[in-house]
């Protein structure tokens, strides 16, 4: 009965990985750290989308493969397709939901490109006219925020600021778990 | 004879889109402009990879879908998978070939994100320690270079420089068609 076998296979897959409401209720690894279920707002079979501790702009989110993989080239062909299909879905719904007009999508792939967490992640940032004085200043802030994320996770004190942009970043306060959960709950309704 | 029909279909597809040596010998549309065959160094069924008029770093290349599509969300599911599979292949071979240690992969998706050519394109930039004084300064230069590309294609004179970074960019000279063809020929050997 090949059809039944097929159905069972689908059920098994679905129980393991499907993007169902309950599937959000699990923690994920983000490099050596944990992204709590409350911070995850969308999932696909091989990837998950989550909110940020210190978003650069409203709706600045991250997408990672479920498997802990450091570099983009280490992703399997299925993971590449899966993460970018999820990124496309998240992008379009986020932009519409937040009334943005453009998006920055970027991977800092490796330490010399500014990657701080050793786990592939796509930054998605809804953009609006004039959101940054210089359009690409946003990347400086992404990098400063990434470094700060690691520092906070490691429980270190913030270093002395050495530039205006890091000053600007330091003014942003880490969000509470409740604030992050509230944003994730809001975004979860889009999926 | 389903097998024969299948083979014919494959042959037809292959004649139209395969990544064969001769397939590089065709021009592609890049928004309203043409990327000449000599500038293309890798192709897949739905995408093509090409060299830059003014690369920011050695090996700064672009990848676009063959179909002229403005925004990332407009790509079909097949196009999303195809362009990122090609990007992954290009990334790993480029990094190894040029002895780089990281990569910046980015899409400026829409004008408010710095997109100047209305045709989806992934920037891939091999990165090395210390290649830019501030790691993410590279994005400012990407944007300045994108604007310059459009200006040159439109045959306009370069404007007065208004910032140090645009000054730095203005020092870079547009490459000749011969220089671009030579780089594409070098990179083509990797595929």
What percentage of the residues of chain A does DSSP assign to strands (E)? 15-25%
Low-confidence stretches of chain A: 1-22, 157-170
Order of strands, main sheet of chain A, comes to 3-4-5-7-6
**Quaternary organisation:** homodimer
Q: What's the end-to-end separation of chain A, in Å? A: 34 Å
The top level CATH class name of chain A: Alpha Beta
In CATH terms, the superfamily of chain A is: HIT-like
Backbone structural class of chain A? alpha+beta
CATH topology-level name of chain A: HIT family, subunit A
Fraction of residues in helix of chain A: 25-40%
User: What is the CATH architecture annotation of chain A?
Assistant: 2-Layer Sandwich
Rg value of chain A: 18 Å
Mean pLDDT over all positions of chain A: 81
- Overall geometry of chain A comes to globular
So how many helices of chain A? 5
β-strand number of chain A = 7
Element-level helix/strand string of chain A: HEEEEEHEEHHH
How many domains of chain A, as an integer? 1
* Main interface by residue count: A-B, 43 and 43 residues
Major sheet characteristics of chain A: 5 strands, antiparallel
Domain HIT (chains A, B): 26-134
Region (Disordered) (chains A, B): 150-191
InterPro entries (chains A, B): Bis(5'-adenosyl)-TPase_reg, FHIT, Histidine_triad_CS, HIT-like, HIT-like_sf
Cofactor (chains A, B): Mn(2+)
Verbal overview:
2 copies of one chain form a homodimer. Chain A is an alpha+beta fold. The first copy, chain A, has one domain: HIT family, subunit A. Chain A has 5 helices and 7 strands. The first copy, chain A, has helices spanning 2-17, 77-98, 137-153, 164-170, 177-188, and strands spanning 28-30, 33-35, 40-43, 47-51, 61-65, 102-109, 122-127. In chain A, the strands form 2 sheets. Chain A has a 5-stranded antiparallel beta sheet with strand order 3-4-5-7-6. A two-stranded antiparallel sheet of chain A has the order 1-2. In chain A, strand 1 (28-30) and strand 2 (33-35) form a beta hairpin. Chain A is globular, with a radius of gyration of 18 Å. Mean pLDDT of chain A is 81; it is low at 1-22 and 157-170. The A-B interface holds A 72-73, 75, 77, 80-81, 84-85, 88, 91-92, 95, 100-115, 125, 127-129, 131, 134-140, 142-143, 163 and B 72-73, 75, 77, 80-81, 84-85, 88, 91-92, 95, 100-115, 125, 127-129, 131, 134-140, 142-143, 163. Chains A, B: The active site is at 121 (tele-amp-histidine intermediate). Chains A, B: Keywords: Hydrolase, Nucleotide-binding. Chains A, B: Substrate binds at residues 52, 108, 114-117, 123. Chains A, B: Residues 26-134 form the HIT domain. Chains A, B: Residues 150-191 are annotated as: Disordered.
